[in-house]
Design goal:
Helix content: 25-40%
Number of domains: 2
Radius of gyration: 21 Å
Strand order of the largest sheet: 5-4-3-2-1-6-8-7
CATH superfamily of the largest domain: ATPase, nucleotide binding domain
Strand content: 15-25%
CATH class of the largest domain: Alpha Beta
Bound molecules: adenosine-5'-diphosphate, acetylphosphate, magnesium ion
Shape: globular
Length: 409
């Protein structure tokens, strides 16, 4: 039998759950060497076309797929647990040290990974109105995991945690102070686990101490956000009270004049819930051109589709505005970094976002930009004043590391 405990005899495996609005990503890691024992994705939860793809670790065989309706997040996690069990990695294993959960909104209270108690869970529940697409899924993930392993520590790692260092002048909206404070209205920021991990990896790529580098991180997935990180600390980020503000996203509008919402209510007669649905689920790339997948949008652009071209241009224009704004916030920028699904894979987005920014010392080398790789890499020319880089994010590894450190120390 291969040893599965740390040298001091304690369990060394961590299961990470990243529950999104309609998907669950999971990974089982062995923290002795940070290796992945299995990874999986359940997508289109609640639809007839749900799909689970389970990938055993290297040497463990080919990916396995299940299709057909998976009704909710509880069923999704149970299906994932069955797949793990089929590989001899069931949740009943004594080697499992903890389960780490990505929790999107932690409000002001949680700036560190936290062992989940009933009281912590209540606080995550209280924050549902400010993360309506995310916190409910996170809560179901936690409850289901607790039911499967009531004896095991469950740890929450919050998307908001990394942003709690933002200075007050960046976190505060310019609205009446008493009203804002009474309702805890401020910029919280999200994707913090990714912004933290990627900014650290960028310093490594540059071969400089984290404390010495200023980085703009562009996390471009389904949700998308930018952050300005000075010497390892977040000083500004584009998402706000909720994950709706900022960049153009797959289905979310990002920045709009707040008066658009009054107008839609008063003049277009929409209810608040309808406006919420419009801005969160029917806007962004999907609202502009009907597609939210950047691969499909690029395919349409290449075919001369004008709506897809407009969606692409609006997306890239917003990115440019944030690169400019965060350059001013940081004063000196050492690197602009692209990450997550679109940032890691879409050379056209990277090229277009940096085009014309020579005055900021920014340029992309076309050959370097065209390289497809899972490794952190520079895509700027050697003589560039500011580095432009692609650094793949790894929220699951970061969550596993923080979870293990918390339960093991
Ligand atoms: N090869 C690719 N080219 C362009 N975009 C891609 C590619 N692969 C993935 N994407 C984009 O990445 C998005 C998903 O990013 P990801 O970071 O996995 O999102 P999330 O974690 O928010 O679900 C997809 O919607 C798609 O637009
Ligand atoms: C906070 C957020 O937008 O997360 P995701 O990109 O997973 O939707
Ligand atoms: Mg993501």
């Amino acid at each position: 039998m291969t040893p599965t405990h740390t040298t001091d005899g304690r369990a060394s495996r961590v299961l990470v759950l990243n529950s999104g609005s309609s998907s669950v990503k999971y990974q089982l890691l062995d923290m002795r060497d940070r290796s992945r024992l299995a990874t999986g994705l359940v997508e289109r939860i609640g639809e007839e076309t749900s799909r689970l793809v389970h990938t055993p670790s290297a040497g463990g065989g080919a990916p396995r797929e299940r299709t057909g309706r998976i009704a909710d997040h509880e069923q999704a996690l149970k299906a994932a647990a069955e797949e793990l069990a089929a590989d001899g990695l069931g949740l009943d294993s004594p080697e499992l040290a903890a389960i780490g959960h990505r929790v999107v909104h932690g409000g002001l209270r949680f700036s560190e990974p936290t062992v989940i108690t009933d009281e912590v869970l209540q606080e995550i529940e209280r924050l549902v109105p400010v993360a309506p697409l995310h916190n409910p899924a996170n809560i179901t993930g936690i409850r289901t995991a607790q039911a499967l392993r009531p004896d095991l520590p469950q740890v929450a790692v919050f998307d908001t945690a990394f942003h709690t260092t933002m200075p007050e002048h960046a976190a505060r909206y310019a609205i009446d102070v008493e009203t804002a404070d009474a309702h805890r209205i401020r910029r919280y920021g999200f994707h913090g686990t990714s912004h933290a991990y990627v900014s650290r990896r960028t310093a490594e790529l540059l071969g400089r101490p984290v404390a010495d580098v200023n980085v703009i991180v562009l996390h471009l997935g389904n949700g998308a956000s930018a952050s300005a990180v000075a010497g390892g600390r977040c000083v500004e980020t584009s998402m706000g009270l909720t994950p709706l503000e900022g960049l153009v996203m797959g289905t979310r509008s990002g920045d709009v004049d707040p008066a658009v919402t009054f107008h839609l209510k008063r003049v277009a007669g929409m209810s608040v819930d309808e406006i919420d649905d419009l801005l969160n689920k029917r806007s962004g790339l999907v609202g502009l051109c009907g597609d939210n997948d950047m691969r499909e949008i690029r395919r349409r652009v290449e075919e001369g589709d004008e709506r897809a071209a407009l969606a692409f241009d609006v997306y890239v224009h917003r990115l440019k505005k944030y690169i400019g704004a965060y350059s001013a916030v940081l004063g000196r920028v050492d690197a602009v970094v692209f990450t997550a699904g679109v940032g890691e894979n879409s050379a056209p987005v990277r090229e277009a976002a940096i085009a014309g920014l020579e005055g900021f010392g920014l340029a992309v080398d076309p050959d370097r930009n065209a390289v497809r790789s899972g490794e952190p890499r520079l895509i700027s020319p050697d003589d560039a004043r500011v580095a432009v880089a692609v650094v793949p994010t790894d929220e699951e590894l970061e969550i596993a590391g923080q979870t293990f450190a918390l339960v093991h120390n």
